[in-house]
Amino acid sequence: MEGDSSSQTTNLKKRRSMKTTILALLSTVALSQAAIIQFDLSPPGTDAAVAPTVTPAAMIVTGATGSGVALLTGPAGAAFYIQNVAAASMRFYCVGGTINGTTGTTAYIITNTGNKAAWAFNTSASGAWFIGGNT
Q1: Is the peptide bond before 56 cis (omega within 30 degrees of 0)?
Q2: H or E element in which residue 60 lies
Q3: Are strands 117-122 and 128-133 parallel, antiparallel or unpaired?
Q4: Which residues contact 42 (CB under 8 A, 6 or more apart)?
């Protein structure tokens, strides 16, 4: 009988150790997914800057002059949190796709008033973007 109790205690300790190890591993994986991607916006009169290809991503816009930011037409499921901290409004385009059902050559503007933020989600590989927020 004592052997059974000792065996159960050993098994319990092993399970606790395994759970702790798995929890630590999953926590490390979850925390390591964040990435900071810096990109420069285009100066006036030049082509638009291209949004990062890694998503989900947060884009903190610090300069809002020029042609704006071009959203890619794919992949479906791409998502961005966009915060405009510039002194002017920021324009987003998706040439070849749509933004909120309108041609992607018509800019979606994130102003420099209100909360200055928006979420952007691509719902198809052909670039059907939905952008909401900026209240």
Answers
A1: yes
A2: strand 57-61
A3: antiparallel
A4: 48, 49, 66, 67, 68
Decide if pLDDT at 17 tops 60.
yes
Give phi and psi for 19, each to the nearest 5: -65, -40
Residue in 62, 72, 64 with CA at minimum distance from that of residue 124:
72
Domain range list for the chain: 1-33, 49-133
- CA-nearest of 51, 70, 73, 72 to 60 is 51
Q: CA nearest 123: which of 71, 50, 48, 46?
A: 71
When pLDDT is averaged across residues 32-41 and rounded to a whole number, the result is 51
List the one residue out of 36, 81, 79 whose CA is nearest residue 58: 81
Domain 49-133 falls under CATH 3.60.20.10: no
pLDDT tens profile 112-130:
888 889 999 999 988 999 9
The pLDDT of 13-38, averaged and rounded, is 61
- Tell me the pTM: 0.61
